Amino acid sequence: MFSPDLISEARVSCGAEIASKKRLLETLAELLANDHPRLNTELVFERLLERERLGSTGLGHGVALPHARIKEINEVLGAFVSTSTGVDYDAIDGEPVDLAFALLVPESATEEHLQLLARLAGMFSDPTTRAALREARSAATVLQLIETNEAR
C-alpha cells in the first residue's frame, strides 16, 4: 500500500499545458516544493534533471517516472502531472509523455526507493489505469485511481 503521505491533491495537476520535457520537470518540481517547507523549486528541479541526465525516466506508453534522492526530506514524496498533449521525453519507445509521476525519496532510502518505483511502474503498465488517468480532470479523481489501483 502506498503511504497516504505519498501524494496529495496539492501535488497533482491534470491537463496541464506543457510543451517540453524541461517544463514538465519544472512543473513537477513546483508541485513538490510548494507543498513542502524544506524544499524549493530550483533544488528539486536540479535533482530531477541530474537523474534524467543519467538516462531517460520515460517508461513508454506515454509515462515517465522522474525520481531523485534528496537529503532535505525524511519522507517519500510524489507528484503527478497529466498534460493536454504529449511532450518529447526521450522515452524508451520514442512516444511522447503525457503522464508523469515524480518521486522524491530521502538520500538514505535505497531499497524503499526501488520498491516504490517498481510498484508505480506496475501501476502505470496497466492500460486501463493509464486511460483513466488521462481522462481524470481533478486531483481527487487521480488520488482515487491511485488508491483503487494499489488496492488490487
TrEMBL record:
GO molecular function: protein kinase activator activity
Superkingdom of origin organism: Bacteria
Keyword annotations of the record: Sugar transport, Transport
A Pfam cross-reference name: PTS_EIIA_2
Keyword Transcription: no
Annotated PTS EIIA type-2 domain residues: 5-149
Alphabetized PANTHER family for the sequence: NITROGEN REGULATORY PROTEIN (PTHR47738:SF1), PTS SYSTEM FRUCTOSE-LIKE EIIA COMPONENT-RELATED (PTHR47738)
Name recorded for this polypeptide: PTS sugar transporter subunit IIA
Natural source organism: Marichromatium purpuratum 984
